[in-house]
Design goal:
CATH architecture of the largest domain in chain A: Orthogonal Bundle
CATH architecture of the largest domain in chain B: 3-Layer(aba) Sandwich
Oligomer: heterodimer
Helix content of chain A: 55-70%
Structural class of chain A: mainly alpha
Number of helices of chain B: 17
Order of helices and strands of chain A: HHEEHHEHHHHEHEHHHHHHH
Largest interface: A-B, 39 and 59 residues
CATH topology of the largest domain in chain B: Rossmann fold
Structural class of chain B: alpha/beta
Shape of chain B: globular
Strand order of the largest sheet of chain A: 2-1-3
CATH superfamily of the largest domain in chain B: P-loop containing nucleotide triphosphate hydrolases
Number of domains of chain B: 3
Largest sheet of chain A: 3 strands, mixed
Distance between the termini of chain B: 55 Å
CATH class of the largest domain in chain B: Alpha Beta
Radius of gyration of chain B: 24 Å
CATH topology of the largest domain in chain A: ABC transporter involved in vitamin B12 uptake, BtuC
Helix content of chain B: 25-40%
Radius of gyration of chain A: 24 Å
Strand content of chain A: under 5%
Bound molecules: adenosine-5'-triphosphate, magnesium ion
């Protein structure tokens, strides 16, 4: 007797593509055509050549108008193929390449006929994405174990405040440790209320965000601003990685960064490995997907959740201290909603550390681009420029992430009988 | 190893699930545990497994009292359990599901997946389970998922293994395989507790049969002398008619017409290929077939949960190929889904709410935007009574009911509406003999009232007992269309296994009279 899988292989008819594939291919085709239109109408508007400054005094020039026409033509052709018959397995690669040339053309148009610091912008992208990486990793650790944590913003903000206050009166790294501990305490509060009393997790998160925002603003006004000695730490200097920092372009972008950046990358690699290959990872995933199954196998569901949420709090606290280290002091609402962007990054990255890293880098890039565009006086209204990172993130979600699925038991309290 | 339960009592709000139950299981024997839906079988086993805490009573292992505060303790004591609703993480591989909780690790808590995989493959070979250690669980058919559950138990070296309704989701062939596994287990000295509603199986495999009714043990039977009828009566407390009585069908017009239907999944793989058939008012058409031959996809397409890649579906002459599920409901299609927990109900809703799910939007259950909860509640009370749903009240959440009673809630909801076509997938999965009798009577009633009934079941006995006409699916195609009177179990079995019958490309109803072409 044949098993069902064997039977299916007989029935693999030549029934082309499914509806979803067809619909997705069509939508992508339309996006290509729109991008081609933008390149043709807008990016051909600046004459002259744009100079991209690299590191070590190097630079290269690009003629903005011809580049725009080439890009528009390429995108139009890709869009045509996409609409006519789809790009099959090249779909994602083509989309990524198209996105890169489109952005390149945008930069050339914005900069022409002047020059701008290309490598500086890339380096800044990494800097900007750092707190998002920590925030997103914290979110992933919670959600993967089945707890929704919208209090990332509050935990980042608390981390920034505590590291500023404690760091000013002691040393910066003591401040960082204090930030981790206090944010972990908030995380414990979240876990305790959610697990022990089954309070709605979104409401607890909301409450923590409000509480931290209010408290830090109050203390900032009343205590920090009148005592400058309580609010001032040294900004962190970039550390050059021996040898690697000498690589052209990559050196200044990736290997001349602060310890926070290196930690973020290391943590992504570690968590990606740990989720996949360790006992902790397997159990965390089980508890977040099907807690009852884990329970019947003797895994203590709620203990796993406590541990993960508290560890996530510590990570968010560490990430929060980046804000202080970046500018040397705390100010009210210094995190500026980055904790919420981190939650979006969790979804864009499909609840995986490497995915979240990519999402954070995309956002960081457009955040840096936003700064540059504001600087280059392109004539685009400033409000609109301010929207770019958010719009780009949405486009990336739609284009690459496709259908995403949250851990099944996320947000649901567990009770064994 | 000998395991004894002594004086176990367990109360839930409003019910005494177990009432002073005594039970002993010894190594090397098979103990069958039978009883009505809600009799307390699963509860008793969950206590034994440390998932629930008994209010009274004690558990003894080899004469020594033990305390299980969590499944962890029970597993350590050598007890394994295959649950009624599988406890598998869908997004895990087979190996990951097996090792969860007892992961072999190397340094830094790293799982030694290589050795785990080897062990899974070994066990699978030893017991003839044909499991791919790297397959993704959610892609596997239920019959195969159950084998993962069995490997989980074997991997933990259990000495006493509890199977809670293992055969409810298996095909006849898989049931034979399962019995072989049980025999291997007992030969190796393990004790097995086997819960089932199929009395035939209990008689076939058990060394002892214990009957539970309303939380109490009401007797023990010797399988060598017991008959199905006697056991059924012991369980239910009244004689049960195990046959389906029905008059010859009074055929009406064609209600459902399916023509050249093809269904593909997201990857473009065809699960149903060019299927054509019709169901007339006043007849019961049964679809037989081994799980995974396209029946599920066919049904999902008929009720609007899937889109057809090609072909048409018409109800009373009206084309409904692209109609939404709600539109189909309104046109008079009832649907009992095969996976009750996934597609049939909202677990955290009360019985009243679940019963209102398909009709809440229209009078009498709502007036404008106001729900008429009083009406819904009295209707629910009527159905609970009629379908003998065992529950403390209609306001109990459905997830707290026993498996068979959850099924009865769905059956009650779907069969109590006014419909033209009733599609029932595995309508009696996990239901006790008394209730099977009732559900079958209801299906025959509907037929006699002129409803077209389509029954899809992997249970060949059920298809043969109910149907006026039998269709067989194999490999996504319809391979037989037989009059019930002209066929028998053996014949249909051959079609199901693909040993007989060509598929019928392009045959649409009307091309030939049903029944002729397959002979
Ligand atoms: N978690 C729970 N909360 C409240 N009541 C429960 C719970 N679990 C079971 N019950 C009740 O206990 C009784 C026994 O249920 P149990 O699941 O043990 O029945 P069963 O014999 O396994 O039935 P079936 O054959 O339908 O699976 C039922 O009345 C059920 O409603
Ligand atoms: Mg049960």
């Amino acid at each position: 007797m044949s098993t069902p899988t064997e039977i299916y292989t007989d029935v693999q008819l030549a029934v082309g593509r499914s509806f979803e594939q067809v619909r997705r291919a069509r939508n992508l085709g339309i996006i290509y055509l729109i991008l081609a239109g933008v390149a043709a109408w807008v990016f051909t508007g600046h004459q002259g050549s744009a100079t991209f400054n690299l590191d070590g005094g190097r630079s290269f020039g690009v003629a903005a108008t011809p580049l725009a026409w080439i890009v528009a033509g390429t995108l139009a052709v890709l869009g045509g193929i996409q609409l006519a018959r789809g790009l099959g397995r090249w779909q994602s690669a083509a989309l990524a390449a198209a996105a890169v040339v489109f952005v390149f053309s945008l930069l050339a148009w914005a900069a022409a006929p002047r020059s701008f610091a290309f490598v500086g912008m890339l380096s800044q992208s990494i800097t900007f994405s750092t707190p998002l990486i920590f925030g997103a990793l914290a979110g992933i650790m919670c959600e993967r174990s089945g707890v929704v944590n919208i209090a990332i913003e509050g935990m980042l903000l608390n981390g920034a405040f505590t590291s500023a206050l404690v760091g000013s009166v002691t040393t910066f790294w003591v401040g960082v440790v204090a930030a981790m501990i206090t944010s972990a305490l908030f995380a414990w509060l979240l876990a305790w209320l959610a697990i022990r009393f089954k309070v709605d997790q979104v409401i607890i998160g909301f409450f923590i965000n409000f509480f931290v925002a209010g408290l830090t603003a109050f203390l900032d006004n009343r205590v920090l601003s009148s005592n400058p000695g309580y609010n001032g730490v040294d900004t962190l200097k970039p550390l050059k990685v021996p040898l690697l920092h000498k690589i052209p372009i990559l050196g200044p972008v990736l290997f001349t960064q602060t310890i926070f950046v290196y930690t973020a990358f290391a943590l992504v690699a570690f968590l990606a490995w740990a989720f996949r290959s360790t006992r902790w990872g397997l159990r965390t995933r089980a508890v977040g997907e099907h807690p009852k199954a884990a329970d019947t196998l003797g895994v203590n569901v709620n203990r796993m959740r406590y541990r993960n949420v508290i560890a996530a709090g510590a990570i968010a606290g560490f990430g929060g201290s980046w804000f202080t280290a970046n500018v040397g002091r705390f100010r009210e609402d210094i995190t500026d909603g980055r904790g919420f962007i981190a939650l979006a990054v969790v979804i864009v990255g499909r609840w995986s550390p490497v995915g979240a890293l990519s999402g954070a880098l995309v956002f960081g890039f457009f955040d840096a681009l936003k700064d540059k565009l504001g600087f280059l006086k392109t004539g685009i209204p400033g409000e609109f420029i301010g929207m770019t990172p958010y719009i780009a993130t949405i486009v990336v979600v739609a284009g690459f992430a496709g259908r995403t699925r949250a851990p099944k038991a996320s947000g649901q309290p567990y009770e064994s009988q | 190893m000998e395991l004894e339960l002594r004086g176990i009592t367990k109360r839930f709000p409003g019910v005494v699930a177990n009432d002073d139950v005594n039970l002993t299981v010894r190594g090397g024997e098979v103990l069958a545990l039978v009883g009505e839906n809600g009799a307390g079988k699963s509860t008793l086993m969950n206590i034994l497994y440390g998932l629930y805490k008994a209010d009274e009573g004690e558990i003894l292992v080899d004469g020594q009292p033990v305390k299980f505060t969590s499944p962890h303790d029970a597993i350590a004591a050598g007890i394994g359990m295959v649950h009624q609703h599988f406890m598998l993480v869908p997004v895990f591989t087979v190996t990951e599901n097996v090792v969860l909780g007892v992961e072999p690790t190397t340094s830094f808590g790293r799982i030694d997946i290589g050795s785990a995989r080897t062990r899974v493959a070994e066990l699978s070979r030893e017991f003839g389970l044909h499991l791919d250690p790297d397959a993704m669980t959610e892609d596997l058919a239920v019959g195969i998922q159950q084998r993962i559950e069995i490997v989980k138990v074997l991997f933990r070296d259990a000495k006493i293994v509890v199977f809670d309704e293992p055969t409810a989701v298996l095909t006849p062939q898989e049931i034979e395989d399962f019995f072989r596994i049980v025999e291997t287990l007992t030969a190796a000295g393990c004790g097995v507790v086997f819960i089932t509603h199929k009395l035939k199986e209990a008689i076939r495999i058990a060394d002892r049969i214990v009957v539970l009714r309303r939380g109490k043990t009401v007797g023990e039977a010797d399988p060598k002398t017991a008959t199905q009828e006697a056991l059924a009566e012991m369980m239910v407390g009244r004689p049960v008619d195990l046959e389906v009585d029905k008059a010859p069908p009074q055929l009406g017009d064609v209600t459902l017409r399916v023509a050249h239907l093809t269904v593909t999944d997201a990857n473009g793989r065809a699960h149903v290929s060019d299927v054509s058939f019709e169901v007339r008012a006043g007849e019961i058409v049964g679809i037989a077939g081994i799980q995974g031959n396209g029946q599920s996809e066919l049904v999902e397409t008929l009720v609007g949960l899937h889109r057809a890649a090609a072909g048409t579906v018409a109800l009373n002459g009206e084309d409904i190929t692209t109609a939404t599920p709600r539109a189909r409901h309104r046109l008079g299609i009832a649907h009992i889904p095969e996976d009750r927990q996934r597609d049939g109900m909202v677990k955290d809703f009360t019985i009243t709410e679940n019963l209102a799910l398909t009709s809440y939007y229209a009078p009498p259950l709502s007036h404008g935007i106001n729900m008429q909860w009083d009406t819904a509640r009295s209707e629910a009370e009527r159905l609970v009574e009629a379908y003998d749903i065992r529950t403390p009240s209609t306001e109990t959440s459905t997830g707290k009911l026993s498996g068979g009673n959850q099924q009865k809630v769905i059956v009650a909801r779907e069969l109590s509406r006014n419909v033209h076509l009733a599609i029932a997938s595995q309508p009696t999965r996990g239901v006790d003999v008394g209730s099977i009798e009732y559900i079958h009577e209801r299906l025959v009633d509907l037929r006699d009232k002129g409803v077209a009934v389509l029954v899809v079941s992997t249970e060949l006995d059920e298809v043969m007992a109910l149907s006026d006409r039998v269709l067989v699916m194999f490999g996504g195609r319809l391979v037989a269309n037989l009059n019930r009177a002209d066929t028998d179990h053996n014949d249909v079995g051959l079609y199901m296994a693909g040993a007989k019958g060509d598929f019928m490309p392009g045959d649409a109803p009307g091309d030939a009279t049903p029944g002729e072409r397959a002979s």
